[in-house]
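Hi team,

As requested, here is the filled-out complex form for the copper (II) ion run. I kept the field names the same as last time so the parser does not choke. Let me know if anything looks off before we queue the next batch.

— J.
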Amino acid sequence: MEKMDAFPLTVKSSEKQETLCIFGTGDFGRSLGIKMLQCGYSIIFGSRKPQMSNLLPKGAEVLNYSEAAQKSDVIILAIHREHYAFLTELTEVLSEKILVDVSNNLKINQYPESNAEYLAQLVPGAHVVKGLNTVSAWALQSGALDASRQVFICGNHSKAKQRVMDIVRTLGLSPLDQGSLMAANEIENYPLQLFPMWKLPFCLSTVLFTIFFFYCVIREVVYTYVYKKEDASFRMAISIPNRVFPLIALTLLALVYLPGVLAAILQLYRGTKYHRFPDWLDHWMLCRKQIGLVALGFAFLHVFYTLVIPIRYSVQWKWRNITATQVSLRKDNPLNTTSAWLSDSYLALGILGFFLFVLLGITSLPSVSNMVNWREFRFVQSKLGYLALILCTAHTLVFGGKKIFNPKSLRWYLPPTYVIALIIPCTVLVIKFILMLPCINKTLTRIRQGWERD
Ligand SMILES: NC(=O)C1=CN([C@@H]2O[C@H](COP(=O)(O)OP(=O)(O)OC[C@H]3O[C@@H](n4cnc5c(N)ncnc54)[C@H](OP(=O)(O)O)[C@@H]3O)[C@@H](O)[C@H]2O)C=CC1
Ligand SMILES: [Cu+2]
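And here is what came back:
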């Protein structure tokens, strides 16, 4: 008997088939029914019109709501909240039964209380458990559950919750206990959120792209057309994006590390770590991974755009022209070692920076970060991350200045877009350097170890 408790799932097949009841024969009810039948449960549907229900899975029985409820002590309500009212007539039959609320709403915080809490008020004698609302009918049927295997569960009655979690596990999903029914509101809002962590990086990159792109178009296309009467509009396809992408990648990479240094400054200023960060900083810290991944995406685009430069018509035309002019003028053009150095060093900085950038991206993937311990993860994300930031900043600095660098006069002119894109990375690096100065670093470490300032 003891063994049976320890391995309830393996023993189940030899037991009598467990019967579950599903209220509602709509899309979700049917998909869930099929899945549960496949997993060895026997299913009874409750419906308003049991005789009219077709399309139901083979092997399932259909009864009216009240009859169906009597057949099982676990009832899954695959019904929209707006139609819950009829359940009040069934309070007696539903007393002491487990009611699983799978419902979702159309808007975040649509009702004053969550659907599950509303259900608990309607049928006070039943044990309401919230769950399964994050899997879709389509995913249940097609088996495409890889990305959404996690199922949030909450409820006030712990045995009822355990029972539902066991069912969820048998369906091949992983239940995650979220506590009491008070968590239902959050669980119901979850499927309605659209990439919450990706919003900030997406908005940031859109704003940066618009600013940089239009500035470059005005400078390189409009200006050239107005003052030189030349059509340079083809530059909008590759040249300008390839200028804009690395600048966005660099700015976003710096924005991954900016909240960290801001937080350190705040801790130094307050003299304690036992104080919440402002909400905006908290949110920013939580989005760092997503910002970094978007930055990596832009870096990849920059690499691809750079690789195609030699096969571009306008570039080949320019090279041919230069060679032909040199031949016709019989002019010699000796190798300029300074230029060679500048060119090679910005390329080398770029390649190394990109390599570390990719490494950061790979280690942030859950499957990889699960394999390294916390210290190793910190080492890669922080130490190597800063190194990547230094290399990429240097790459931009050398490249931006390369074309306009005049070795004779030693004048170095950086175009405005580069200056703007370098402000944040340089600020982050300078602050980080200051924070690493021994006296400041010691205070910060003391604060982070939980010492209060006297
Ligand atoms: N579809 C999905 O992918 C997902 C759905 N959900 C949730 O599951 C629940 C069911 O969704 P879904 O199956 O898509 O919805 P459907 O509209 O397809 O089905 C709802 C079912 O509710 C029953 N019902 C009971 N009373 C009423 C009434 N007064 N008016 C209309 N229907 C009634 C009906 O069954 P009958 O005719 O047999 O009585 C109907 O088939 C919802 O709460 C939804 O939020 C959750 C996650 C995913
Ligand atoms: Cu570059």
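Two things worth flagging: The domain at 2-192 is CATH 3.40.50.720 (Rossmann fold). The chain has two domains: 2-192, 196-448.

Thanks,
J.
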